[in-house]
Amino acid sequence: MNVVKLSTVALERDKIVETALRLLDEVGLEKLTLRRLAAELGVQAPALYWHFKNKQELLDEMTEVIAVQKGPRLGPLAEGESWEAWLAEWVKEQRRVLNSHRDSARLTAGTHPGEGMLATVEMILGSLTRVGFDVVDAMWGVTALSSFLGGFVLEEQADRERGVGDWSQFQEAVEILAPYPHLCEAMIRIGGPQSEGAFEHGLTLILEGMRARLAASSGRQEGHGDLEVEGDRPAAG
Amino acid sequence: MNVVKLSTVALERDKIVETALRLLDEVGLEKLTLRRLAAELGVQAPALYWHFKNKQELLDEMTEVIAVQKGPRLGPLAEGESWEAWLAEWVKEQRRVLNSHRDSARLTAGTHPGEGMLATVEMILGSLTRVGFDVVDAMWGVTALSSFLGGFVLEEQADRERGVGDWSQFQEAVEILAPYPHLCEAMIRIGGPQSEGAFEHGLTLILEGMRARLAASSGRQEGHGDLEVEGDRPAAG
DNA sequence: GGAGTCTCCTTAACGTCGTTAAATAGAACG
DNA sequence: CGTTCTATTTAACGACGTTAAGGAGACTCC
């Protein structure tokens, strides 16, 4: 009895979250309203409070579904596989998953990592230490990648929401950028503020930094105190 | 006449924005309400619509004030100065400025860069090209730094808002992390998910990547196609 | 110096939101 | 049959952003 009833409720919850995610893609986070969601389910708004404590709990579950239910595809680093390519693939997959739902970055922003994400990070740390990383360096690398990912997708989706990328606003952008020659040249040569290239390149930068860090720390016994940025390079040029 | 009246309005706008920023620090973004702000100014809510088209315009102006009015301290890269240290200082200053106001990251997230920010970026691009960067690489570097900064501070402030960092929740965190040995070790050796070290280190990674990119591109005539991550390392095993 | 204009604010209200309280239809159970 | 539990409805509350209409006070101009 207990089992049957609980599973019924769970199924209902899943159905609600699923509908909410579909609705999110249709109308965006701003207009994702309990009343609207309820209507979509053929129900009155307060009915949702039987299944969820409040709206935040629904949103939390939505982020968990986005983050975990999709894309746990990454297996541990294979013997002899390039950790750079492997890590890059993970980050790109994360971006792909985030971009598979409208406003997902704003939705996810500031949510605690769920079980699935913790397990993934644990596996990454294991793999990276196996190729020689200090576990702290590995953790900080993952943190950097994750911050970059979050920040990038956030701006990317915000631009999309504003309709940037439409050529209608391109002319306007050119006028604004006119007084800034370098910026202007860069924009023209790139083709938009948030191109694929910007993501790939930023990702590469961090991985390159991690590679340098790995080399420096495995070169000496305890890899610490090498790559400091603050004033350790004598000014040259 | 015209001048006097316009400046009066401008002063009022400034006073409103200033009060709004103070109120933001007091009550947080969620409870920053037009009615509350108006009350703080000794005025009724609709009065604000004389000075601002809508709430978003007020928020936009708040972000512009945060981003520009504070911390335009960075001058162009001096002759012989280390560009790494110089850039690092800028990013750290940006973080300091963001963290000087509650919820500033969420406020800023998805706002178009204002005039001041454009000018700053232009100056950075100028300085970086002067030390040998291709303008596109410089732009992508700045983009990466900015995404990292935004993502990091967003999580950082979200944690703060949730009261993470309180030792009350530390025990709980330990229990959650128990099944993940690497994660656990990393956390213990770091001392929290969002430490100063994580920021400094992530920043260093990106700068290190930029340094490598600079070296690679100045080594050949046209620096392109060197640091690709996708599949250039043969997967084996 | 009175009429008109402009600035800045008020009062009143609208529609929507998240959320709560209370009542209720229907199934499950003794 | 009566009770209990599940899942929902109806009604309402307070707060939000926003709009409409008007009014008090200063400034301008003939």
Can you give a write-up of this model?
- The structure is a homodimer of 237-residue chains.
- Chain A is 67% helix and 0% strand.
- By secondary structure, the first copy, chain A, is mostly helical.
- The first copy, chain A, has 2 domains: 2-52, Orthogonal Bundle (Arc Repressor Mutant, subunit A), CATH 1.10.10.60; 76-219, Orthogonal Bundle (Tetracycline Repressor, domain 2).
- The structure holds a DNA duplex (30 and 30 nucleotides).
Task: Provide the fold topology.
Two copies of one chain form a homodimer.
Chain A: H1 2-27, H2 34-40, H3 48-51, H4 55-69, H5 83-98, H6 104-108, H7 115-130, H8 135-162, H9 170-177, H10 181-190, H11 196-219
Helix pairs in contact in A: 1-4, 5-8, 5-11, 7-8, 8-11
The first copy, chain A, binds a DNA duplex (30 and 30 nucleotides) through α1 and α3.
GO biological process, one term (chains A, B): negative regulation of DNA-templated transcription
DNA-binding region (chains A, B): 33-52
Region (Disordered) (chains A, B): 217-237
